[in-house]
Amino acid sequence: MLRLVQNEWIKIFKQISTYIMIAFLIVIVIAVGGISKYVNSQDKAVSTDWKKELQTQIQSDRETLSNPNDIVMAPSLTGFLEKQIAINEYRIEHDIPPEQDYTIWSFVNDSTGLISLVGLLVIVVAAGIVANEFSKGTIKNLLIKPYRRWKILLAKYLTTVVFLVFMLAILFISSALLGAIFFGTGDPASNVHLAYTNGEVVEQSIFIYLVKTYLLNSLSVFLLTTMAFMISSVFRVSGLAIGISIFLLMTGDTVTNLLATKFEWPKYSLFANTNLMQYIDGTPLVEGMTMSFSITVMIIYFLLFICLAFVFFTKRDVAN
User: Fold this and answer.
1) What does 260-318 look like in DSSP terms, one character per residue?
2) What is the pTM for the complete model shown?
3) Residue 302 in contact with residue 223, Cβ under 8 Å?
């Protein structure tokens, strides 16, 4: 199995498009860093009475919660306001001012928005790793080797997952390096993150929090990559896999959030459950959802995608 994975890995890095993807990701990180550096280099008034500002914000948030009919109050928005009130009260009580300087941790946290870009790049690889074998006619040469079909497909899937982890690592490391160069590490207070969990505010290491954030925010990309791999295996058309997966990557969260403001059934959709950070921060999308529920739903979708991929790849004729 290891030999098969190594062969697939070599195939990926024999393609010039792989190096273009890596270079493109790094260039985007540098561009975002440069924009952030410019924006944060502008003169900004630093508040000296931050406690008063937080008290004003707390009062405003409480008024919003007490008058839910004035705006569309999704459960996630209610949870967000409750979390914001609790954290601001904790800051006042423990004399922890809000972060006022932009640091390496701020930039790494903001770079989580680029995880979707990583997903887009990896989906292209996942969609083609099986379909391209059929389109180029190399699948016959692959299947005459002394390996069972399921091992060949498993090696391709494992290689895709490893490539996803590889690209995420590039994003995290490049963001950290660029953030350290452009913005510095900040004061010790910036190394602490305030999290709202189970109705309580707790202090966490910012590094551990960011690693956790990257991993949890990558779940949707991981499942969409698996779906693209499944479509590639079932239909043997990379364009179809890329189109469907990227469309869902770009619109899935938005559509699910809109539906969740009116209905309860969206909690069974894939996109309502991939964001486990909603439980870390205490703002579930639909009231009554739990982390165990979301994990169960994701496992069901994952097994569905994997089963379809392996059943179709191992059973269908490959004469064409």
Assistant:
1) HTT-SGGGGSSTTTS-THHHHTT--SSTT--HHHHHHHHHHHHHHHHHHHHHHHHHS--
2) 0.80
3) yes
